[in-house]
Amino acid sequence: MNRIDLVDAQLPQTQCTKCGYDGCRPYAQALVDDEVPINRCPPGGDVGIARLATVLGKPVLPLDETRGLHVPLHVARIDEQHCIGCTLCIQACPVDAIVGANKAMHTVLAALCTGCDLCVAPCPVDCISMEPVQPARAWTDDDAAAARSRHQRRATRLARESREDQERLRARSAVREQDSPALPATATVAGADDAAERKRAILEAALARARSRRAH
Known about the structure:
Largest sheet: 2 strands, antiparallel
Order of helices and strands: HHHEHEEEHH
Strand content: 5-15%
Low-confidence stretches: none
């Protein structure tokens, strides 16, 4: 196990980004490079700071509460009556703990949720809340290992999907160039603007329906 792996193993793997980095692994890299203090992980709390101090040979520091407070384990809950199926929470979840489809109800798999709360802010109808785990329990090293594995699988899947999307776009572009005359650049831009406007109109209509339901 290299030093980054060793430091990463002390982190809770909630992937909450409260430390200012895009997940636990980048924070571990910054710690090894001595670019950041060891007290910027609210989910790890004082125990996590002590573990990092031991591994890195640094003095224990109090938690930097500007990054957030250490709280009991919470999980996300979706008010399914008001979910509009926008998929923004699914895109935000770093461990694929939310299931659902476009324009269909979404559900949080509580057993997989790390409590990162990254799904809350993107929800356009405020139908996601963070609730304490019942019965209350502590986040364990086994939880952390499972969350790390899911986060890695998600990153691999997203990279693969991005490559596949790029390949499809290149293939479609090649077919269009062969089968039809080139469109003026202004036509291409106008088409993209029209598509974006349709998406905005659909989302605004869904939001209006959700607000109406909540008002009644």
